[in-house]
Amino acid sequence: NYLLGVGRADCTGPVAEIPLMGYANLEQVGGGLLTRLYSRAFIVADLEDTRRVVFVSADIGMVSQKVRLEVLNKLKSKYGDLYRQDNVILSGTHTHSGPGGYFQYTLFWITSKGLIRPSLNAIVNGIVKSIDIAHQNMKKGNLFINRGTVENSQINRSPFSYLENPASERSRYSSNTDKEMVMLKMVGENGQELGFISWFAVHPVSMNNTNHLVNSDNVGYASYLFEQDKNKGMLPGEGSFVAAFASSNLGDVSPNIKGPVCVNTGDSCDNPQSTCPVGGAKMCMAMGPGYDMFDSTRIIGQNIYLKAKELYEEASQEVTGLLSSAHQWVNMSDVLVELNATHTVKTCKPALGYSFAAGTIDGVGAFNFTQGSVEGDPFWDGIRDQLLGEPSNETKACHKPKPILFSTGEMTWPHPWHPDIVDVQIATIGSLAIVAVPGEFTTMSGRRLREAVKREFDSHATPGMDVVIAGLCNVYTHYIATYEEYQVQRYEAASTIYGPHTLSAYIQLYRGLARAIATNTVQDLPRGPEPPVFNISSVTLLPPLTVDRAPVNKTFGDVLQEVRQQYRVSEVARVTFVGANPRTSAENATEHNFLTVERYNNNSDSWRMVQNDASWDTRFYWTKGLFGQSKVTIEWHIPRDTEPGVYRIRYFGHYRKKMSIIHTVSIPFEGTSSAFEVTTQ
């Protein structure tokens, strides 16, 4: 028996003009909303309430050091020492369709146009609010664990790297991806269903880098389906049941299961360089199972949801026992790793290799770099040396065979480009050990880490632990490939920033945490060097928010293109309004709804809301025009099971107006489409 609390809060942030975080594609900026992003929080406390563990899964690309430090500061001022570095795990789902701009290290400023306060605030406040809700709703209950195999939802996107791992090791596994989903189910003592956390390794990149609508991708769709199913009669984002689909060792795992294809010829490009005969690496893209990216997101999300539903319904193995947590800060650029009694090796200052610029088959890089580059290129080296400085001989030697493109550990203007100080953390809930890792472990790296942690518990009289990896926690350090995968320098290896022995260093560190928990000596662990906090309020290349204007003889919210009078189910109702910059709305309200779909009720002569902007059936597009004008188009993809009747679509926005030379205000407005009929045939 434990005390359990769950909470969910919006963390969407601005949906326009902000670069989306994930593909590092400068052209991929937000231009609307497919579905809202949420932070989902779970608190477990023992009945005496002496110990607590908090796990948060947020619909964001990754948790940054800045986000984590700000969240913990807010929790400290609210709750004192109840929620701390050691017992709060913050994990990102790794959607590539959420707003960026919430990092303090310079490298991430380049692709997200600096540090964007409204984006950072939305994430920090959303995470804190979800924890507040869980904290306020603690009740007695029970935990159950279950595990099972998810089929047809992932492929290994660097199979040639995976094959570098020893044959004796590979022969112990039936697949080159981890297909197992682990679920922790929470039930109140009166049988009330509270929610669950599940962990499964897959990249949420069913939505590709041509997408401009903010959304939570395949795992977010799985959460949506589960929460809609359990919170009957509620709008999306409402209701008390919370379903988290958290990330795991997804480093080399893609949901684009049709595999890599040359988009210009249709031929396979499943080769070590992921390159095409015509057009090179740029043309090699992996395709999902659907007819477009929305459909692929739906198919993969539904697969994951259906497996989770089955595991949830059948979960019967109860989790009991003590709560524990351990956390350390480590200077990852300088870890001495003891490989065995006679051999020690070191990690390196962070650096990114050439293949980092190649991107992956899920999102190709910009300049036709290819994956698997083990030597540099004099042309790019020359440009880099001029702009950013040449890597030192020490860093070059340390990272071999990686040819260094960006020696980020030696770049400090205006602030360091990459973290040196990294969080390592484990929390245990009875027999479940959650290993919170600061990046993307590949399939085999994750297997080695889980096994090492489990062995450590076994050898200190704590047998039978279920070890699960929670990905993208606390600070982002790119990828962690195995030593063998590192040698062939595909994208994941080039992005293993602390050098070839990164994984060995993490294994040594996490074994230390597991040992401390198993032997009850957590209090003796050194805290480690505290991470720096750079005093940056906001540095951004975003266009400034200007005054919004409506066309002549029109006003905000006027309809420019009307709906049809009648639609059948499965068709798309579409309406275009005179719009205003959605960033203005984001700065006014966190819970702002941009749209509703409403159904007319004859008996009461009133309209009832049936969809909001968190629905996967609605799409909100914003198009910027000239001189402060803009348009908003709202689509409703009418589901098959829609009740026939009379409907309308409404739009809610804010426009920015100048009151005087120095004073601007934002004024709310709304627009409504004509009524239209929905029929079944």
Quick overview of this protein structure:
22% of the residues lie in helices and 31% in strands.
Count the DSSP helices. Answer: 14
- From the spread of the alpha carbons, the general shape counts as globular
Helicity level: 10-25%
Structural classification: alpha+beta
Strand content: 25-35%
Count of discrete domains: 2
What is the strand tally? 40
Biggest beta sheet summary: 9 strands, mixed
Can you give the mean pLDDT? Answer: 95
Low-confidence runs (pLDDT<50, min 5 residues)? none
Rounded to the nearest angstrom, the distance between the terminal CA atoms is: 53 Å
Which helices and strands appear, and what pairs or packs with what?
Elements: E1 2-10, E2 16-21, E3 29-33, E4 38-45, E5 52-58, H1 65-79, E6 88-92, E7 98-99, H2 107-112, E8 114-115, H3 117-136, E9 139-149, E10 155-156, H4 159-162, H5 167-170, E11 180-188, E12 193-199, H6 217-230, E13 242-246, E14 253-254, E15 259-262, E16 284-287, H7 293-314, E17 317-319, E18 323-331, E19 336-338, E20 344-346, E21 352-353, E22 359-360, E23 363-364, H8 378-388, H9 393-399, E24 404-406, E25 421-429, E26 432-436, E27 440-441, H10 443-459, E28 466-470, E29 479-480, H11 483-486, H12 491-494, H13 502-518, E30 539-540, E31 559-561, E32 566-568, E33 572-579, H14 582-586, E34 595-601, E35 606-612, E36 618-624, E37 630-637, E38 645-658, E39 664-672, E40 676-679
Parallel strand pairs: 5-6, 12-13, 26-28, 27-29, 32-40
Antiparallel strand pairs: 1-4, 1-9, 2-3, 2-7, 3-36, 4-5, 8-30, 9-11, 9-17, 10-14, 11-12, 15-16, 18-25, 19-20, 21-24, 22-23, 25-26, 31-33, 33-37, 34-35, 34-38, 36-37, 38-39, 38-40
